[in-house]
Amino acid sequence: MTKELVFITVIGKDQKGIIANISNAVFKHNINIEDLNQKIMGGYFVMTMLADTTDSPITISQLKEELAQIEDRLGLKIQVQHENIFKAMHRV
């Protein structure tokens, strides 16, 4: 079975609860976190997450809408992109 992978990137001023908010949002929609990398750079929080949406009942657009609420509430910049975008950009 092929996985439906999305990249979630988060950038913003470091504060408590960023990872908790994002991970809870994906968990409640049965989205599995495959990989996560986060770092604090000069007071800014930077995170990349690879998540499998195969078993999720929501669409990527719906996920983007939900994460946009977190983005607004916490003053972050959150992007969600399907893995196919990256594959297409690097096709020879």
Summarize the structure.
The chain has helices at residues 18-27, 60-74, 83-89; strands at 5-13, 32-41, 44-52, 76-82. By secondary structure, it is α+β, with helices and mostly antiparallel strands. The protein has a four-stranded antiparallel beta sheet.
Provide tags for this entry.
92 residues; alpha+beta; 35% helix; Alpha-Beta Plaits; 3 helices; four-stranded antiparallel β-sheet
Number of domains: 1
Indicate the CATH topology. Alpha-Beta Plaits
Radius of gyration computed on alpha carbons: 13 Å
**Terminal-residue CA separation:** 25 Å
The low-pLDDT segments are none
Structure description:
The chain is of the alpha+beta class and 92 residues long. The protein has a single domain (5-89), classed as ACT domain (Alpha-Beta Plaits). Helix content is 35%, strand content 38%. The protein is built from three helices and four strands. It has helices at residues 18-27, 60-74, 83-89; strands at 5-13, 32-41, 44-52, 76-82. It has a four-stranded antiparallel beta sheet.
How is the secondary structure organized here?
Blueprint: E1 5-13, H1 18-27, E2 32-41, E3 44-52, H2 60-74, E4 76-82, H3 83-89
Antiparallel strand pairs: 1-3, 1-4, 2-3
Helix pairs in contact: 1-2
